[in-house]
Amino acid sequence: MPVSRKRPIRRRGPFYAYLIRCADNSLYAGCTNDLDKRLLLHNSGKGAKYVRGRVPARFVYANAYRQYRSALRMERTLKAMTKKQKETLVCGSSIVSKGALSGRAVRSPSAGVGLKG
After folding, report:
1. Cα torsion 93, 37, 117, 27: sign
2. Is 21 exposed, middle or buried (0-12, 13-18, 19+ CB in 10 A)?
3. Are 69 and 116 in contact (CB under 8 A)?
4. Which fold would CATH assign to domain 15-111?
5. Hey, which of 27, 85, 107, 112 would disulfide with 81, CB 3.0 to 4.6 Å?
6. What's the pTM value of the predicted model, to 2 decimals?
């Protein structure tokens, strides 16, 4: 009897672990491969349940990874952080505005941050 092997799912990168600041000043951590789409999804009320009642939301931190697994690992790390630790990360990071959406922000490449993982 042949053993069936599952093929790994091929996901297209880059992938991002991100923090969103909601209207009530809370922070939400997530992971995506398209920051613009994800922000539109959150602000349209079709994203994460947590963010739905707290719109408008905007990105305050995002970091790019080559592998989905690495971005997911960072998302878990962000979710495990306290609010104070997240605020320190946001305040300590070099953020530059990029993209068509004014709320989208990613860490500056000049800060030594590129694709990881």
Report:
1. positive
2. buried
3. no
4. GIY-YIG endonuclease (3.40.1440)
5. 85
6. 0.72
